[in-house]
């Protein structure tokens, strides 16, 4: 419809629309492009007092390293400051958080979608309230018991905590995806001779993959983007990328190595870029699935 | 193969009564149709038999087993769903085979049985397709094949034709009738379409608001409706119902007078008669009223007239023509009339 | 579904939520009632070979540690923590109300109380960012919807970036650009011709930067939801509005906006919830001198050398109360609908 009407739009309106879109795209994308570009410069260029043309042309970078681009920041972050270890931890944490969240979430979401009873409704409402809890308030409840139980600082603790924090959202999202699968399907399976679990595994899960992938993306994002939990619950050796970047900030700035932090930030951004590139449609559908249901 | 017995079955959700005190014996090999408007409890009854819905009260027996506590899979019934419930990720062949697989039927029998079931519903050319690549009628037949591939105690069919277009519905209906004749398996069939009920059933159960209104063969239900609900639900068009009063075997209301009714009651009643039992009167008729509309049906002409505040339909010869507003005289034989109690709606007399 | 099956399915998820969401809330409440032990002091007689003896008070490290091990929660303090200067600070508030010199003075002095400083910024962030981000998102959705199809994909791609970016990373990226040496910070100094203008020095600028970051990162969510909503606006209604002579603006006002209203409620709810826990940008922007939030206060209590569990617990409880107040309209509505359904 918009195409057929486009030529009828007054020129002024078109200018406004295109102008606004260009403005927004710049606003959304420029900070990333600029930081990626700048991460290959030296600090004197990226944080240039004199002129930002320096960052564009790499004046100081050429003077200091001989070339317009330098990987020094990346070398410093990944090799000198062991960022690779944090990256490894992040992979472990996000992988397990995603897998466990989805396992728990599909089971629970399925039951919630198929039970019409009152307690299913109240579980969903409780999940909504839990979803609203700021993570750091929960973290303040964990620390003391975790110290006592001697499970503070290790990856498994953080993983299970992130899974739990993620459950309310995962449950809601998968619940709404399961609702969109006709009940007839599991009922025919059960009449055909399946138990509830067999119906879930053999008949429902094979058609749930789009929903599982979408929800998985959001579980991944939660694990990947988390700062509050991982910063407080992991010991320095076990830190994932985000808390590592935060602890970089102080130490690195004083040592005059801000570019290490910039390189680390860009490194942490790249996987997200790739994620959006490949899963744009799923992310959009996930956001709207929640909305349409909500 | 088995008989099914429902003893005082009730289903309630909080204060809402879905099915109220349902009692029925379904004979082995019988084709039973549950008929009623949507929300009358017919689907709920079937789902309770299948085990998909908890039973609030009462007992369900399949064969000589009380199945109240059994899972659907242990009741050994098969079911055709309104939207077919085909597994979209499996081919037609795998769909039909699925019940054999999950019930651990020996592998070597699978192929033969799937092919036999597919042949019965003429699905052989489509076995490798997925449901998404099938037409509505073909999907419906896959659902049928999946139901007949094993020999269950009973078939349950939940409005299996309602998603088909009119023409396909007629041919599939015939196919279901034929399948039942071949397989002779007890079948319970839910529908809101009285024509399906009349054509398929050995016996029909008419339900409304969770209550059984009448149980009988199609002809019993058509010829002797137990109450005004059944009378108004069965037949196309439904039976004309006109409020009036009766005395000494004479029914009167505004614009209508019928003598010679074999009734001894006196007072307000509802008169029922079918459009096809009425004829154009030679001379004076039992009904004389202006014509409200004239509809040409092809095989007949349908007149509507307003009598005692009700619009009644009269089926007359196909070459009859009249103008709207003309007065027509209609004859109704007393033998074709039914009388119902005006307050309770139940049938008066035999 | 039978109860047994239902709970078998829900159990893992339920256990996880009870153990790591419900119990921690209880734990937080308990913690907030305790404060750290006083250090155990001992009198030690200190005798010098040539100077006689003196007695002095010393911390008995062993005894303190032992006490700590026996009662890890600390000593019971009742609601004391809630009312102290770092939290609700009723005494200080009373003094301020009695001895103030006008509203500006009240404002400045209240902002010096840590809890109120965090609370005020949190609320401002919530209620400024949410509507602005929704307006921005709605605007983008309308504009993108008017574009030719081929351009939509890439624009949606770029639009998603500010949303999915790790909050800490996203705020760092903006912070570096806005810092006096960064491209935007330097440009602003240049524009206003004021070399002292910087985030660090100006609370106002810090607040604006944080709010801008909030709109930047929250806008895309509204955009995506509204854009999806726009696809479901019934074409019939839109076309009949056109035939009835409604202008572009009137079509938006009378057809599109009402259609999107339920979505808008949903977006507002989600974003209020998320914005109420604003935290990472304050770390990313190193803004704690000029702006803090409730979440940041808890983080700060927990991350020092001496972790103040009592104080963190009290702030957490107050935060949770805030969340419940924020959610109460939804909860009340759900409860009413539920009652209606039952009766």
UniProtKB/TrEMBL annotation, chain A:
It is a multi-pass membrane protein. It is found in: Cell membrane. Residues 87-281 form the ABC transmembrane type-1 domain. One of its GO terms (biological process) is transmembrane transport. The keyword Zinc does not apply. PROSITE patterns: ABC_TM1. The chain crosses the membrane at residues 12-37, 91-112, 119-147, 159-181, 202-224, 258-279. One of its GO terms (cellular component) is plasma membrane. InterPro entries: BP-dep_ABC_trans_perm, MetI-like, MetI-like_sf. Keywords: Cell membrane, Membrane, Transmembrane, Transmembrane helix, Transport. Belongs to the binding-protein-dependent transport system permease family. This is Carbohydrate ABC transporter permease. It comes from Devosia oryzisoli.
From TrEMBL, chain B:
It is a peripheral membrane protein. SMART domains: AAA. Its main location: membrane. GO terms for cellular component: ATP-binding cassette (ABC) transporter complex, substrate-binding subunit-containing. Signal peptide: none annotated. Residues 4-234 form the ABC transporter domain. It is found in: Cell inner membrane. Pfam families: ABC_tran, OB_MalK. It comes from the Bacteria. Keywords: ATP-binding, Cell membrane, Membrane, Nucleotide-binding, Translocase, Transport. GO terms for molecular function: ABC-type transporter activity; ATP binding; ATP hydrolysis activity. This is Sn-glycerol-3-phosphate ABC transporter ATP-binding protein UgpC.
TrEMBL record, chain C:
It is found in: Cell membrane. The chain crosses the membrane at residues 6-30, 119-143, 155-176, 252-270, 311-332. CDD domains: TM_PBP2. The keyword Membrane applies. GO terms for cellular component: plasma membrane. Gene3D superfamilies: MetI-like. GO terms for biological process: transmembrane transport. Belongs to the binding-protein-dependent transport system permease family. This is Sugar ABC transporter permease. It comes from Devosia oryzisoli.
């Amino acid at each position: 419809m918009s195409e057929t009407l486009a030529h009828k739009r007054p020129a002024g309106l078109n200018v406004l629309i295109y102008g606004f879109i260009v403005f927004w795209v710049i606003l959304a994308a420029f900070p990333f492009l600029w930081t990626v570009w700048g991460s290959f410069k030296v600090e004197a260029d990226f944080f240039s007092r004199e002129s930002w043309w320096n960052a564009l042309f790499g004046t100081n970078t050429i003077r200091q390293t001989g070339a317009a681009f330098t990987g020094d920041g990346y070398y410093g972050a990944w090799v000198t400051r062991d960022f690779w270890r944090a990256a490894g931890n992040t992979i472990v944490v996000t992988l397990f958080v995603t897998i466990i969240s989805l396992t728990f979430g599909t089971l629970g979401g399925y039951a919630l979608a198929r039970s019409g009873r009152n307690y299913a409704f109240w579980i969903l409402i409780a999940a909504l309230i839990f979803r609203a809890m700021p993570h750091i308030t929960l973290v303040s409840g964990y620390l003391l018991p975790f110290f006592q139980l001697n499970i503070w600082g290790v990856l498994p603790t953080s993983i299970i905590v992130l899974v739990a924090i993620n459950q309310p959202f995962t449950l809601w999202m998968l619940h709404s995806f399961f609702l969109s699968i006709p009940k007839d399907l599991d009922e025919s399976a059960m009449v055909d001779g399946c138990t509830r679990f067999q119906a879930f595994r053999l008949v429902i899960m094979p058609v749930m993959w789009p929903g599982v992938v979408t929800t998985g993306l959001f579980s991944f994002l939660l694990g990947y983007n988390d700062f509050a939990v991982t910063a407080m619950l992991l010991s320095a050796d076990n830190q994932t990328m985000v808390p590592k970047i935060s602890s970089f900030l102080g130490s690195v700035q004083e040592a005059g190595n801000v570019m290490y932090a910039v390189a680390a930030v860009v490194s942490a951004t790249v996987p997200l870029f790739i994620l959006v590139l490949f899963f744009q449609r799923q992310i959009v559908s996930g956001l709207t699935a929640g909305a349409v249901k909500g | 193969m088995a008989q099914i017995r429902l003893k005082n079955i009730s289903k309630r959700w909080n204060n809402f009564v879905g099915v109220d005190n349902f009692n029925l014996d379904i004979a082995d090999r019988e084709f039973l149709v549950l008929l009623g408007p949507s929300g009358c409890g017919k689907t709920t009854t079937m789902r309770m038999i299948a085990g998909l819905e908890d039973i609030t009260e009462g007992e369900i027996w399949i064969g000589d087993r009380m199945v109240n506590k059994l899972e659907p899979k242990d009741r050994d019934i098969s079911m055709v769903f309104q939207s077919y419930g085909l597994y979209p990720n499996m081919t037609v062949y795998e769909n039909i085979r699925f019940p054999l697989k999950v019930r651990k039927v020996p592998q070597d029998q699978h192929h033969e049985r799937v092919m036999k079931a597919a042949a019965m519903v003429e699905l052989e050319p489509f076995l490798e397709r997925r449901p998404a690549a099938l037409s509505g009628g073909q999907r419906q037949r896959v659902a049928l094949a999946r139901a007949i591939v094993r020999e269950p105690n009973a078939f349950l069919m939940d409005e299996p034709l309602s998603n088909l277009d009119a023409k396909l519905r007629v041919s599939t209906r015939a196919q279901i009738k034929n399948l039942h004749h071949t397989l002779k398996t007890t079948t319970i069939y839910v529908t809101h379409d009285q024509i399906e009920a009349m054509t398929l059933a050995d016996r029909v159960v008419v339900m409304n608001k969770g209550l059984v209104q009448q149980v009988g063969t199609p002809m019993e239900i058509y010829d002797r409706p137990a109450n005004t609900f059944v009378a108004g639900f069965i037949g196309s068009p439904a039976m004309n119902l006109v409020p009036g009063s009766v005395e000494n075997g004479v029914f009167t209301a505004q614009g209508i007078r019928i003598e010679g009714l074999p009734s001894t009651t006196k007072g307000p009643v509802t008169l029922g008669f079918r459009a096809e039992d009425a004829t154009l009167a030679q001379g004076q008729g039992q009904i004389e009223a202006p014509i409200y509309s004239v509809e040409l049906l092809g095989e007949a002409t349908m007149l509507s007239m307003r009598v005692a505040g009700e619009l009644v339909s009269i089926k007359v010869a196909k070459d009859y023509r009249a103008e709207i507003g003309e007065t027509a005289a209609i004859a109704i034989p007393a033998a074709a009339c039914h009388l119902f109690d005006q307050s309770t709606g139940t049938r008066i007399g035999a | 579904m039978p109860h047994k099956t239902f709970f078998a399915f829900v159990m893992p998820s339920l256990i996880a939520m009870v153990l790591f969401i419900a119990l921690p809330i209880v734990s937080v409440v308990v913690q907030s009632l305790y404060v750290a032990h006083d250090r155990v002091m001992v009198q030690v007689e200190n005798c010098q070979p040539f100077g006689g003896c003196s007695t002095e008070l010393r911390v008995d490290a062993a005894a303190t540690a032992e006490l700590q091990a026996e009662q890890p929660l600390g000593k019971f303090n009742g609601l004391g923590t809630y009312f102290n200067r770092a939290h609700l600070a009723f005494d200080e508030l009373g003094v301020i109300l009695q001895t103030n010199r006008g509203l500006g003075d009240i404002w400045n002095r209240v902002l010096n109380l840590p809890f109120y400083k965090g609370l005020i910024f949190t609320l401002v962030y919530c209620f400024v960012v949410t509507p602005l981000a929704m307006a921005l998102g709605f605007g983008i959705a309308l504009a993108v919807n008017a574009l030719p199809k081929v351009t939509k994909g890439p624009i949606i791609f770029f639009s998603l970036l500010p949303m999915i970016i790790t909050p800490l990373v996203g705020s760092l990226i903006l912070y570096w650009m806005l810092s006096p040496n960064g491209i935007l910070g330097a440009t602003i100094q240049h524009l206003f011709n004021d070399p002292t203008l910087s985030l660090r020095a100006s609370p106002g600028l810090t607040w604006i930067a944080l709010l801008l970051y909030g709109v930047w990162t929250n806008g895309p969510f509204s955009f995506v939801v509204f854009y999806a909503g726009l696809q479901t606006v019934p074409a019939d209604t839109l076309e009949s509005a056109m035939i009835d002579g409604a202008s572009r603006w009137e079509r938006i006002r009378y057809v599109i906006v009402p259609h999107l209203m339920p979505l808008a409620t949903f977006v507002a709810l989600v974003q209020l919830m998320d914005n109420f826990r604003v935290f990472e940008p304050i770390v990313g922007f190193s803004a704690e001198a000029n702006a803090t939030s409730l979440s940041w206060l808890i983080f700060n209590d927990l991350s020092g050398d001496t972790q103040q569990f009592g104080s963190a617990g009290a702030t957490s409880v107050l935060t949770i109360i805030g969340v419940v107040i924020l959610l109460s309209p939804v909860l009340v509505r759900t409860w009413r609908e539920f009652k209606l359904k039952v009766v």
